[in-house]
Specification:
single chain; alpha/beta; 7-stranded beta/alpha barrel; five-stranded parallel beta sheet; 19 helices
Length: 488
Amino acid sequence: MRAIIFYFQVHQPFRLKRYRFFNIGSDHYYYNDFANKSIIHKVSEKCYLPTNALLLELIERYKGKFKVAFSLSGTVIDQFEKYESRVLDSFKQLADTGQVEFLNETYAHSLASLKSPAEFERQVIMHREKIKDLFGQEARVFRNTELIYSDDIAHMVSQMGYEAMLTEGARHVLGWRSPNFVYYSGVEPKLKLLLKNYRLSDDIAFRFSNRFWDQWPLTAEKYVSWLKAIDSGHEVINLFMDYETFGEHQWEETGIFEFMRALPEFIFNGTDFTFMTPSEAIKTFQPVAPIHVPHPISWADEARDLTAWLGNEMQRETFEKIYSLEGLVKEANDPQMWKDWLYLQTSDHLYYMCTKYFADGDVHMYFNPYDTPYDAFINYMNIVSDFELRLKQHLYTALGDREPTTPDEIKALINKYQKELDRLRKKLETLLPSTTKTAKAKTRSQSTTTKKKSTKARAQSKKTTSKTVSTNKNTRGKKSSQSVRKKS
């Protein structure tokens, strides 16, 4: 028996409104409500509602033999709750069948795993609680934002108690090995890995409607013939893709829904494959080998690396800036600021700043609200500047206009100023390293000179004392001789 795992990522960011330099300090609402609402309505009608209905139909038709897995980001769930409760209801219907598994991820679909372990864990816990509340499932399988994975991330995920993780079957990681097996982390052997078969996944997700593709048109029968040609020793075929593949990336007119409707029948009747959820697969198949990934990989673009989000100076500056505010956010501890910081971490904001073109360019322009990557950068940094200003104003005015009165307030104020003094002292040492070193050297030199003078003074004092004693002895000797002579 061999398994096919269908996994779908469901995500939409909170898109930001046009925010100019002159808005900084006066406008603290950052979101384009019209765009967010209209996009959610559009994608719900074209993709989420009809595809959920199709999957429910297949589950009922094949009486539990057809199974899929989802990961819904916290930001898309928040928008469903705000704009499209019908979609959440349809996902709940799928959950009730018992044939659909919901995985965990970061709540904001963020890159926190690359920068802040504490924030990464906070978002994962938030998402875990949300999924359990909505669908009654407590996931044991994790998928990170955009399938980003490394040994360091594996360690964090394993420490949070997850049994398995999804990631990309990148060629530069696998080498001669196939993604069609269960593997395990090279640093956390208890953490099993399911690797995306990118060729078979992308045949559906990207190439399905490409008329210049030599395999167009793709039919269910042709696709199953490719599955049958896979070596019989291979155990799992992981088909991971964006859920928007159905009806949005590949429009209904391309035949994508009919392809999906026909696929299970051809698989059941012509192959030894069955459908499994990720949890079922890791219980059924034993891992065959460890996977070591010292540098992060993802499922994005040809390179399968992080350059879609951190490939240029604008992206890296933005990434460093938003996470530099973590301490201020924690200190402010304001619910609205926590929420804004959460939504500003969404990886899409960095994705819009990507300057990669050629083979990957079209992908980066899809659903991109900006004319250029530079527009995305300027807009985002204006918002972050206002957000930072709000944080600092909140902290400086936390006590209002009155003086601190209670011991706790006085202690808190002292601690705040002490932290600021420490920060400024470190910054001064960084900015003026040579001056600091010169001052320290001068201090040491002065100290040495003082010690030498002190030693010399003590020596001189001893010499003087010795002369005085000798003189006194000589004087007493002379007086004694004169006295003897007089008596004689």
